[in-house]
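Let us walk through a complete example step by step. Step one is to write down the protein sequence. Step two is to encode the small molecule, fe (ii) ion, as a SMILES string so that its atoms and bonds are unambiguous. Step three, shown after the inputs, is the structure prediction itself.
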Amino acid sequence: MNIFEALRVSHETQRALSARLLASLSDTPERDRVFKELKLELKAHEIAEERCFYVPLFAHDVTVDPSRHAIAEHHEIDEMVEDIEELASGSSSWPEAAKKLTHKIEHHLTEEEHKFFQEAGKVLTESQKLSLAKEYEAEFLTQRLKPA
Ligand SMILES: [Fe+2]
Ligand SMILES: [Fe+2]
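Step three: the predicted structure of the complex.
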């Protein structure tokens, strides 16, 4: 498995959780459970992806801007998650805020997969693509298993 395939595994998990969140908006206990899982998944992925993908990409001039852009989006996603957490459970804004979050996530994943992965593919060596996948998987697991 290379780093792109490893990152896509997490991306598919986020897509599945986003779909489950949208499908459970009228079921508050289920919605809250899925939201919490999505939050933990996003957090672990962002940290591991920044450490094991974007940090190595900062070594190359052509991938500095895409890396900055992606990390800024991680921050925006984190703020959207925090804003949702601050809403009262019965708030009428909750479903709309959750929809906006899932749109933002999909935008981010698509941009990474269709743009940044291609750019990264040109600067990372074949052995880096393999070793970064292992580093990503280990870091992701470490982060994911941390108590919330
Ligand atoms: Fe990302
Ligand atoms: Fe990602």
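Step four is interpretation. Residues 73 and 79 are 10 Å apart (CA to CA).
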